[in-house]
Each structure stands twice: as structure tokens, then as C-alpha cells.
């Protein structure tokens, strides 16, 4: 068995999600207007999907990308009404920060140098995307502190929608889709990746996007609380999905 086989369910799912980013680029252009940097960003995100696809084609040849991706098309990519530009940019900062933290955790969980190197590259790209969106956000009229908090909280909550759960289902399943079951099985694997240092990495980016720099002691308390919450959810989802 491949040394990183335990990570293949995650890699398949994220490969499908990254492969949809061109559609998100089109959505972003409707919110922010056509801009060359949006095209460049979407094109780079598309390379993430392609690189993961190439990796899986070699190491997980049972993965039928075309079939899974066709199935994923049953779910509309973005059902939200367009948000105001500053809110959309802040939402992107959140997503890029989470993506960067996710690839860093995946890199640290990977056992083979090839997958470690791939994840490290994707992590660096996501950090650059985060910084780019933050720069564009800074050029917009300022959002109030409560508004920023609300946007960040909403974007984190949206991680529970069908986008990830359905992609996880398409990565393996042909049968009926059950949102809660699919989400639980996928997230139980993802939560298990995170160590406290990964959360600290994400937290630092989110605080910067929030425009806040709380005292060191507060940052420590928030990080410990986040870590405890992730551990708890990891155990909870693992037990419920029968992977314990
Ligand atoms: Fe990406
Ligand atoms: Fe990105």
C-alpha cells in the first residue's frame, strides 16, 4: 500500500474542489469587475487542481477524476447572492488563510517527499493569494470591526454547506448523497491533521485580516480554545462515522 494512501480521500476531495476555481473566478469578476489579477489568481488555482490530479493519476489510479468531476457539476458552484466587494475580499482572505493552513497540515501529515513538496508549494501559493486579497481589501473603504467579525464568522460557517461534503461524496461515492454523513466522514479525516501550530498559523492570518492584534496572552487563549474545539470535533466526528 502507498505510504500516503490514508490521505487519498482528502486529496481526491480537494482536487475536485480546486478544479472548480475557474467558476469562482467568474463569480468574483461579477462582484469586483473584470480585472487581470482575478484571471491570474483563478488560473493559478486551476493549476492546484491540475497538480493534484497529476499526483493522483500516478499514485491513486483508481480515482476516476472525469467521472467524479462530472458528478460534482450537479451542485451549483455558488448559490449566494453577490456580496459587497469589501466583504467578498475579506471572505477570500478567510478561505485563502484556511487553505494555507490546510496544506501546511497536509504537508506535515504526508510521509513521502513528493507529497510533502507538492503540499508545500500549494501552501506557499495560498499564502500569496491571502496576501494579495488582503492588499486589495486595504484599498477598499474600511469595514467596521463588528462587520469584519461577522464576515469571518459567516465564511467559516459556510464551510458546513454542501460544497465540501458533496465533493467528498463524489470522490468515492456513486450512491445516494447524505450531507451529514459525507461531511462527518470527510471532516473526521481533516480534523485529525491539525496540530496546534497549524491553528496558530491560521489564527495569525485571520487576526491580520480582522485588523486586530490582541495581546499575546489573548492570542494564546484563543489558540488553545480553538485547538480544544478541533480535537473535540475530531473525536466526535470519528466516533459518529465509525472510524474510531
Ligand atoms: Fe488553491
Ligand atoms: Fe488560493
Oligomer: single chain
Mean pLDDT across residues: 88
Beginning-to-end CA distance, first to last residue = 21 Å
Beta strand count = 0
Give the amount of beta strand, in percent.
under 5%
Radius of gyration: 18 Å
Report the CATH superfamily of the domain at 5-172: Ribonucleotide Reductase, subunit A
CATH class of the domain at 5-172: Mainly Alpha
In terms of per-residue confidence, which ranges show pLDDT below 50 for 5 or more consecutive residues? none
Which H/E pattern describes the elements?
Answer: HHHHHHHHHHH
Q: Describe it for me?
A:
The protein is mainly alpha-helical and about 240 residues long. The chain has a domain at about 5-170: Ribonucleotide Reductase, subunit A (Orthogonal Bundle). The chain is about 75% helix and about 0% strand. The protein has helices spanning about 10-20, 20-30, 35-60, 65-70, 85-110, 115-140, 145-155, 160-170, 180-190, 195-210, 215-240. The longest helix has 26 residues, at about 115-140. The protein is globular. The protein starts with 7 loop residues before the first helix and ends with a helix. The model has no long low-confidence stretch (mean pLDDT about 90). The structure holds fe (ii) ion (FE2) (2 copies).
Brief descriptors of the model:
244 residues, mainly alpha, Ribonucleotide Reductase, subunit A, 11 helices, binds fe (ii) ion
Give a brief outline of the structure.
With 244 residues, the chain is an all-alpha fold. It has helices spanning 8-18, 21-32, 36-59, 65-72, 85-109, 113-138, 145-157, 162-172, 179-191, 196-210, 216-240. It has a domain at 5-172: Ribonucleotide Reductase, subunit A.
Amino acid at each position: 500500500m502507498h505510504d500516503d494512501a490514508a490521505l487519498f480521500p482528502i486529496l481526491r476531495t480537494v482536487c475536485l474542489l480546486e478544479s472548480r476555481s475557474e467558476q469562482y473566478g467568474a463569480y468574483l469578476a461579477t462582484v469586483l469587475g473584470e480585472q487581470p489579477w482575478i484571471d491570474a489568481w483563478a488560473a493559478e488555482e486551476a493549476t492546484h487542481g491540475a497538480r493534484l490530479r497529476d499526483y493522483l493519476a500516478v499514485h491513486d489510479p483508481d480515482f476516476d477524476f472525469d467521472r467524479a468531476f462530472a458528478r460534482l457539476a450537479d451542485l451549483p458552484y455558488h448559490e449566494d447572492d453577490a456580496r459587497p466587494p469589501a466583504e467578498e475580499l475579506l471572505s477570500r482572505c478567510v478561505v485563502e488563510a484556511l487553505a494555507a493552513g490546510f496544506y501546511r497540515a497536509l504537508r506535515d501529515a504526508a510521509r513521502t517527499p513528493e507529497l510533502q513538496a507538492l503540499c508545500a508549494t500549494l501552501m506557499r501559493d495560498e499564502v500569496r493569494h491571502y496576501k494579495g486579497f488582503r492588499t486589495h481589501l486595504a484599498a477598499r473603504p474600511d469595514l467596521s470591526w463588528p462587520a469584519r467579525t461577522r464576515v469571518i464568522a459567516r465564511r467559516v460557517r459556510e464551510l458546513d454547506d454542501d460544497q465540501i461534503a458533496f465533493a467528498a461524496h463524489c470522490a468515492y461515492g456513486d450512491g445516494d448523497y447524505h450531507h451529514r454523513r459525507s461531511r462527518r466522514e470527510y471532516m473526521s479525516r481533516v480534523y485529525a491533521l491539525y496540530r496546534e501550530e497549524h491553528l496558530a498559523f491560521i489564527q495569525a492570518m485571520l487576526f491580520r485580516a480582522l485588523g486586530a492584534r490582541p495581546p499575546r496572552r489573548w492570542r494564546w487563549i484563543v489558540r488553545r480554545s480553538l485547538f480544544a474545539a478541533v480535537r473535540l470535533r475530531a473525536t466526535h466526528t470519528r466516533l459518529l462515522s465509525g472510524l474510531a
